Structure formats: C-alpha cells, structure tokens
C-alpha cells in the first residue's frame, strides 16, 4: 500500500512539474511575442542605397537657435558629414543634386524617449518620419546589437541606449520582475556595484532609474554610477522632490513624474477637488521648475501620451482612429492574455473598467481631465524657467506609434506653452547637446542628419510632417522610398496579424 501511495504521489508530482514547465514555456513565449520579435523585418537595403556626395541647392536652412531660416543656401554632404554650406557652393557634377528651392532644411529630429522592444521595423519608422536619432529608455542586449550594426554601415537612426530599468526588489519578486519586466533588481550595495559594472561593460549609455526604487538603493545607485562614470536617468524613485533635486540624477523621463509628485503632496482626491489642486499646482510649479534649473536637471516631455489617457479610457476606438495604427507592430498592439499590455479594446490597460458605476466614471473623467491640465501647467512652468526640455514620446506605449508620434508630441508642446522654435529646439539642439552628439545643428563638420520639408515648421509646427527627403549618415530617402518602406512594413504587419484592425482605421 505504501508503495502504491508513493507511486501516486510521484506521478502527481511529475504531472505538476510538466504542467508548470508547460505554463512557463507558454508564458515566456507570450512575453517574447508581445515584444514584437515575431514580425518579419523588411529588407531595407533593397530600398535605400548609400550616396557618397550630395548637394542640396538653394534651400532655406534652420538657424542654430531654431528661430529663423537662412535663405538661399547650398549644403554639401560627403561621406555622412556636412563639409560646406553657404551661397553658390561649387561641386563637380558627379554629386547627387537635390533642388531645395522654396523648401526648408532642418536637423534630423530626435525622439528622446522610445521603447523599441524587439520590433526592428520601428527603426525604419523613425527614419521615414525624419527622426535620425533616438534614446531607447529600456534597453536590452538586442538593441545594443542593433546599435553596433548601424554604426558599421547599417541602416537606422543613431541610438542612445539606457540599461533595463532598475528595481530594488529581492527574492522571488526580483526574479519575477526580471523575467516579466526585463528589469535589473538589486537590494544590496554589493549587488548594485556588480550590476552597474556589468551595465557599463555591456555598452549601455546610462542607467535607467525606475519609480519603485527605495531611497537607500537610489542613493547607492547614484554613488556607484558616478564611480563608473555612467549617467543615471529616468523616473523619480521613492523620494520626495527636495531629495531628488540634489540626488545627482540628471534627467526626468516624463513631465508627468513631476505632476504625480504634486498630486501626492496635495494629499486629497483631485477628482473631488480639481480646482483646489490646480491652484495648488500653479503655486508650486514655478518653484519646482526653478529647482530643476538650479540643479541642471533636464526633463523629457511625453505630453501627448498624457493627453491621450482620457480618450484611451473613455473613447478608445476614436483614439485608435487618430493614429497610424497599421504601422505599429501587430503583436505589440494585440497584447497577451497574461495581463493588459496591448492597445486594442479589451487589451488596453488604460481603458475604463468601472463598468456601469456612473459616479465612479464621472470622478474618473474629472481626474483625467485635471491630469492633462496639470501636465500643461507644469510644461509651461518649465518653459518659463528655461529648464531643458527634450521632446520624447514613450513610443510603443499604448497608442504611441513609433516615428509618427514625435510629430504629435511637437504639436502638444506647441499647445502647452512652447513657441514653434522652442518645440523644434526640443527635438534637435537640446537632446543633441545633452547627448554631446555631433547632430542637431546644420553646421560644417556635423553629421549629415537632415530633413528637407516642403513647408515652414516655424509657421506651423505640423509642417514637420511635410517631408521631401531624409538624410542620415551616408544615406538619403525621398518621398517615393518613404512610401515603399511604409508599404513594406504594413504588409509585414498584416502577415503577422491575428486581430483585424479595419474598424480602427480611417
């Protein structure tokens, strides 16, 4: 009898183990899928070819401070560098000549907050939208590989890559977060040093701070990062603003990080006290901006995303119709049954789930309207106090389509208190200065990351979308090639789509 009982127990244990392994494999595959890696990568090299020498003739070029255009200029590009500019520049007829008459040349745009995940076609979405540099704010080994490939004559935007996000969890929670959230976890100084040393060795450009790091590990991270000469950027962790200002972290990943701290400090429901909170914020926003300026802390925007929360919550279908949904990786927008990671109805984590509770819905609506207003107030305070703002989108977060979303972001910044010149500056000069890169200006010796527009973006910021040519490194693409690339990405997406999206496309 004992032997029989033991056998049953053994069989049960084996069945449980097989089940557990099966669930793990399925869950791991789901997580891989939602990263977008299963979508076929288009053959960009069959569309885009290198051009050794290019001359853009008789165009208007954006000044270094982004406030005006210099008329009737020639720009000569050779081997990916601007070698000359001015009026009536001479070059032999072997160069590629681009007629820039009545057109507007701006530096290549920079999206300072993106999430590529494992969706390589996104790199090309940035290029066709005139975005020649990106800051990947939650890197992984595959994005480091892409960066190296691009540096070796590959086709794609320049890349600044942070580490995976830092958490200060321990035990099983740490393992779970590391697996599901692609994060780095440590709870001791020894482990922190080991992790940051590895981050530096792997080639990441900065350590990505996340919002749930405790004060002790936050301080430890800053100290060790300074030792290894690597920046700490990202979210504001579990400290108050006064502690954050003097911490040594040099950038905040979202303007909303600041407003969320003021909501915490307000200490009341902003849904029930919206006007009181707005007055509270107005009294504090200027002080916060001054402290950021004093401590040389930059801020990345992501304003458009925050504006979208209300409609994603209450009118998601209409919101999806506003964006270029067909170019977003299908596996990213479809999400996973594990938890709400997608963009579509029933998959979207921002979608209202209060069902028929009228009062709860009303309060939620007030909250998100107030939230958006708060973002605008804080943005205006940052602008007024000359805090460095870098345009960023949080691309691949729900409804934020890579590439296209930066143009949306510039519109939002323009509505939030920036002039069109300041908005352009936030997507060119400001991030290039911050990264100490040889981009962001039309200047002899700088990289030839340029965008030729048919209309003046200083007249209307929406004109950043009127792209005629994009120049980057030793390559250029024109409107016809842009259309070809977009069609190839759309086709690749359709081949890997499980959920039809026709009803969400205008």
What does this entry look like structurally?
- By secondary structure, this protein is an alpha/beta fold.
- Among the domains are: about 35 residues; about 110 residues, Rossmann fold (3-Layer(aba) Sandwich).
- It has 17 helices and 17 strands.
- Strands 1, 2, 3, 4, 5, 15, 16 and 17 form an eight-stranded mixed β-sheet that branches. Strands 6, 7, 8, 9, 10 and 11 form a six-stranded parallel β-sheet that branches.
- Helix 8 packs across helix 9.
- The mean pLDDT is about 90.
The tally of strands reads 17
Instruction: Return residue spans where pLDDT drops below 50 for at least 5 consecutive residues.
Output: none
Large-scale geometry: globular
* CATH class category of the domain at 138-248: Alpha Beta
CA-CA gap between termini: 70 Å
Strand content: 15-25%
Q: Major sheet, described briefly?
A: 8 strands, mixed
Q: What is the tally of helical segments?
A: 17
Structural class: alpha/beta
Query: What's the overall average pLDDT, rounded?
Result: 91
| Rg (CA only) | 24 Å
CATH architecture of the domain at 138-248: 3-Layer(aba) Sandwich
